[in-house]
Design brief:
It is a single chain. This protein is about 65% helix and about 5% strand. By secondary structure, it is mostly helical. Among the domains are: about 315-460, no CATH class; about 465-560, no CATH class. A hairpin with a 2-residue loop joins strand 6 (about 540-545) and strand 7 (about 550-555). Helix 10 packs parallel to helix 12 and helix 12 runs antiparallel to helix 13. The model is unreliable at about 1-15 and about 20-30 (pLDDT under 50).
Length: about 575
C-alpha cells in the first residue's frame, strides 16, 4: 500500500493538476493584488487627509496673533534658554504645563529663533513688542499645524480599524476641515496639542480593548497620554478613562471566552500603559530631572488650584448676562455654536440610526460618547470657562458624526443617490471653513443662527479682526507717532506702527486712538468716564466679520486736540 501511495505521489502531473495549480496561483495573486491595492488606498487616503488638514492650518498663519500666544512665545524662549544654558529647572515655565507647546515652538523656530523671546533676554511683559514677534509667531505656528495634520491622519487610521473605511474617511475629512479644530490647530497654545494627544490615546486604547489590536496600541496610547499630560492638566482624565476601557473590555472578553488568562494580560497592559505614560512625561521635561517629580507635580497642583478654581477676571458673557461663572449650560451651548452642520446633523443621524449599528461598533461609539460627556462634565466643574477648553471632545464628535453619515450612506442602494449624498457631505464639510476665511475663529454654527446670534449668546473674540483695526490705524496720517489705548493690547501691539498701552477704566488723555474689542463690546461695560466719552465720540471705524462686530476704533483725546 505504501508503495502504491509513493507511486501515486511520483506520477506525472495531469492537465487537471496543472489547472488546479494555475487556479490556486490566480487566487494567491488575486489576494496579493487585493492586499497591495488596500495598502495603496490607505497611503493615498492618508496623504489626502494630511494635505487637507495641513493646508487650511497654514493659511493666514501670519495674519494676527491671538490671546496668550505672546505668553507662550515668551515661555518657549525661556524653556530654550534653560536648555541652552544648562539650567534645566528653567524648563518649568508654567503649571499647565505646556511642555509640548514649548518644544514645538522651539523646534519650529530653531533654538536661536525661540530664544529671542525669552524674558531674560528682553525683560518685557508683552513679547509682542519685540520687532520680530510676528515673523517668529508665523514660523512657530508651522510646527503646530504639522502636528495637528499628523494627528488628523493618525486618528483617521485608528478610526478605520474601529469603524471601517467609509466612516474613517469621512471622519478624516471632517477632522481636517472642522473650523474650530482648524482655528486652534495652528496656534502657539496648549489646547490644540492637548486635543491631538488625548484623541490618539483614547482611540489607540479602544483599538486594543475592543478591536483586537496588539500591545503596540497600548504603547501608543501611553505615549500619547504622556504627551497630553505634558500639554495641559485636564489630560488627567485619561488616567481614569483609558484603564477603564482596558479593564471593562478585558472583563467582557473573559466572560465571552471563559478563560482565566485575560486578567494577567490586563495587568500587563495597564503596567505598560502607565510606564509609557510616565516615561514620556519624564523624558521630555528636563525640569523633572533637575527639580524632582515631587517638586514639579506640587507646583502643577498649586497652579491648577489657583487658576482653575478662579473665574476669568474680565467676566463671562452668556445670553446677555455678565458673571463670574456662566453656569452648567455654557459648554453645551458654546459647543453647539462651534460645531459645523456636518457634525451637528451627523450626530442626529447617528442617534436616529443607533439600532442599525453592529454590536461591536455600537460599543465603541458608546465609549466615545462616554468620553465626550465625561470630559465635558469634568470641565464644567470649574468656574473659569472658555469654549476652547472643550476642544478635546471635538474629534470624538466628528468621529461619531462620520459614523452617523456612513450609516446613512449604506442605506442608499442606488449609486446615483449615494454619489449625490457623498458630494453633499463633502460640500457640507468644506463650506463652513471657506465661508469665514481667513478667520476660522469667527465661525459659528448657522443652524443656530451663525455669528449674529452667537454674539448675543456666548463670548466672542480671540484676536480676529484686530488686524483690520491695526491696518486702519496704520493708514491714517502720522500713524507712526500715534499712541493707542486698547483692550487686548497684547494682541494689537505688534500690528500697530506706533506704541500704546492697555485700556483701563479711565479715559487715556494721551491716546490718539482707543480700540475696544470682543467681550467688552458685548458687555457694554466701560465705566462712567469711558461711557460718557464714547457717547460723545462714536467709532470712526468698526470691524465686522461673519455678522459680528469685533472691534471699534474711537479717536482719542490727543487726536481730538489736534488742529
Amino acid at each position: 500500500m505504501s508503495h502504491a501511495i509513493a507511486a501515486d505521489h511520483r506520477r506525472p502531473a495531469t492537465d487537471a493538476d496543472q489547472q488546479d495549480a494555475s487556479e490556486r496561483a490566480v487566487v494567491r495573486s488575486g489576494h496579493e493584488s487585493s492586499a497591495t491595492e488596500r495598502r495603496w488606498l490607505v497611503v493615498l487616503a492618508g496623504l489626502v487627509i494630511f494635505a487637507l488638514a495641513l493646508t487650511p492650518r497654514l493659511a493666514g498663519r501670519g495674519l494676527f496673533p491671538t490671546s496668550d500666544e505672546d505668553s507662550w512665545m515668551r515661555r518657549a524662549g525661556g524653556f530654550t534658554w534653560g536648555l541652552a544654558n544648562g539650567q534645566l529647572g528653567r524648563t518649568y515655565q508654567n503649571g499647565h504645563p505646556g511642555v509640548t507647546t514649548m518644544w514645538t515652538a522651539m523646534l519650529s523656530q530653531g533654538p536661536t529663533g525661540a530664544i529671542r523671546f525669552a524674558d531674560r533676554v528682553h525683560n518685557l511683559r508683552v513679547v509682542g513688542q519685540v520687532p520680530a514677534y510676528l515673523d517668529g509667531l508665523a514660523q512657530a505656528r508651522i510646527g503646530f499645524a504639522v502636528v495637528a495634520a499628523l494627528g488628523a491622519l493618525a486618528a483617521a487610521l485608528l478610526l478605520w480599524r474601529l469603524f471601517g473605511r467609509e466612516a474613517a474617511l469621512l471622519a478624516g475629512a471632517g477632522l481636517a476641515l472642522e473650523p474650530f479644530l482648524v482655528a486652534n490647530g495652528q496656534l502657539v497654545h496648549v489646547d490644540g496639542l492637548l486635543t491631538t494627544f488625548v484623541t490618539l490615546s483614547v482611540l489607540a486604547a479602544l483599538v486594543r480593548g475592543t478591536a483586537g489590536g496588539g500591545r503596540g496600541f497600548v504603547l501608543l496610547s501611553g505615549v500619547a497620554a504622556g504627551l497630553a499630560l505634558l500639554s495641559k492638566t485636564p489630560a488627567l482624565f485619561l488616567v481614569g478613562f483609558v484603564p477603564a476601557v482596558l479593564a471593562v473590555s478585558t472583563l467582557k472578553l473573559r466572560v465571552d471566552a471563559h478563560t482565566s488568562q485575560l486578567p494577567r494580560a490586563l495587568s500587563a497592559d495597564l503596567l505598560l500603559w502607565l510606564l509609557a505614560t510616565a516615561l514620556t512625561f519624564v523624558a521630555l521635561w528636563p525640569a523633572v530631572w533637575a527639580l524632582g517629580p515631587v517638586e514639579v507635580l506640587g507646583r502643577m497642583a498649586a497652579f491648577t488650584r489657583e487658576t482653575g478654581g478662579q473665574p476669568d477676571e474680565v467676566g463671562s458673557f452668556f445670553f446677555g448676562q455678565v458673571g463670574a461663572d456662566p453656569g452648567p449650560l455654557y459648554y453645551p451651548i458654546a459647543t453647539l455654536f462651534r460645531l459645523s452642520p456636518f457634525v451637528t446633523l451627523g450626530l442626529i443621524a447617528l442617534v436616529v440610526s443607533t439600532r442599525r449599528l453592529p454590536r461591536a461598533a455600537g460599543a465603541r461609539a458608546g465609549w466615545l460618547t462616554l468620553f465626550a460627556f465625561g470630559f465635558a462634565l469634568m470641565m464644567t466643574l470649574g468656574p473659569k470657562k472658555f469654549d476652547r477648553y472643550l476642544l478635546p471632545i471635538f474629534p470624538t464628535l466628528v468621529a461619531l458624526a462620520a459614523l452617523g453619515w456612513s450609516l446613512a450612506l449604506r442605506r442608499q442602494t442606488r449609486p446615483v443617490t449615494r454619489g449625490a449624498l457623498l458630494a453633499s457631505l463633502l460640500a457640507l464639510m468644506a463650506w463652513p471653513l471657506l465661508s469665514v476665511q481667513p478667520y476660522p475663529l469667527a465661525y459659528y454654527n448657522p443652524l443656530l443662527g451663525g455669528g449674529p446670534v452667537a454674539a448675543r449668546t456666548v463670548m466672542v473674540g480671540n484676536g480676529e479682526g484686530l488686524d483690520q483695526a491695526a491696518a486702519w490705524i496704520a493708514a491714517q496720517p502720522a500713524a507712526a507717532e500715534a499712541r493707542v489705548a486698547a483692550h487686548s493690547f497684547d494682541i494689537l501691539a505688534p500690528m500697530i506702527p506706533g506704541d500704546g498701552e492697555p485700556l483701563r477704566e479711565g479715559v487715556p488723555s494721551d491716546a490718539d486712538y482707543i480700540v475696544t474689542y470682543g467681550r467688552r463690546i458685548q458687555m457694554q461695560r466701560w465705566g462712567g468716564a469711558l461711557e460718557r466719552y464714547f457717547a460723545a465720540n462714536p467709532p470712526v471705524h468698526s470691524v465686522w466679520i461673519n455678522g459680528i462686530e469685533y472691534a471699534r476704533v474711537h479717536e482719542g483725546p490727543r487726536r481730538g486736540d489736534q488742529p
